[in-house]
Amino acid sequence: MIVSHQHKFIFIKPRKVAGTSFEIALSKFLSEGDIITPISRNDEEIRSNLGFIGPRNFNFALVDLFSKDKPAEIFKRELPLKFYNHIPAKMAKRRLPANVWRDYRKISLVRNPWDRAVSIFFWKNTKRDRKPKLKNFTPYFAKNPHLIEINYPNYRIDGAEIVDTYLRYEHFEQDILKLESEIPGISGLWETFKGINAKSETRKKTITTQEIFAKNPDVNAQIETLNAWEIGKFGYTL
């Protein structure tokens, strides 16, 4: 999550949509007083090597009294963060000042739900020494149907959309350049973003999304039902 007070936007970060790369690119345009939540150690190294501003202003006041080099603990229990990676929109709204939530542009990323489901399957099931077997694709989503809607808490509060600007994974250049034209202070964001490759895909590239779903019609039916809003809004097809 990122909150830019200078440019008056809130970036609400969903999963499996190149959100970390986008977040790193946005960091180029941020200031000391902005809210920037931590990402993984390897991704923070990418951000640092680029010379961009890193995590800050994400803790509750008490946690700020502790070292930023390790999680703060009391009686061996880790203290919660005020803002964190992939924070749900409902919680972000509750913890931000009312005028910030009301007046700032809320930005998020969206992706074809069939491609996202495949990416989630590989992300969740890839081990250090082996790739997941696609024969487990249908059983996995039968057990974990909530993953098909994994980003909806970032897009909605109590069923109502809260995002002002969606950037489509499949049309990043077009959508980011349009955002630059609307927020001149982030001019150059696309050029920065396209050179960053954080958390690269782990999925098998030898089989297409269409081929996967041809063999897994039950998951296709789940997506058509659970992602109907997203499919209709953005015109996504398999």
- Helices and strands, in order, run as EEHEHEEHHEHHHEEEHHHHH
Rg (CA only): 19 Å
How does the overall form come out from the CA principal axes? globular
Which range best describes the helical content: under 10%, 10-25%, 25-40%, 40-55%, 55-70% or over 70%? 25-40%
Number of strands: 9
Class based on secondary structure composition and strand pairing: alpha/beta
Average pLDDT number? 91
What is the overall number of helices? 12
Report strand order across the widest sheet: 3-1-2-6-9
- Poorly predicted runs are 67-75
Give an account of the 3D structure.
By secondary structure, this protein is an alpha/beta fold. The protein has twelve helices and nine strands. It has helices at residues 19-27, 41-49, 89-95, 98-103, 113-125, 137-143, 152-155, 172-182, 189-193, 209-214, 217-226, 228-234, and strands at residues 2-4, 9-11, 35-36, 73-74, 77-78, 105-110, 156-157, 160-161, 165-168. Helix 1 (19-27) packs parallel to helix 2 (41-49). The longest helix is centred in the middle third of the chain and has 13 residues, at 113-125. The two termini are 30 Å apart.
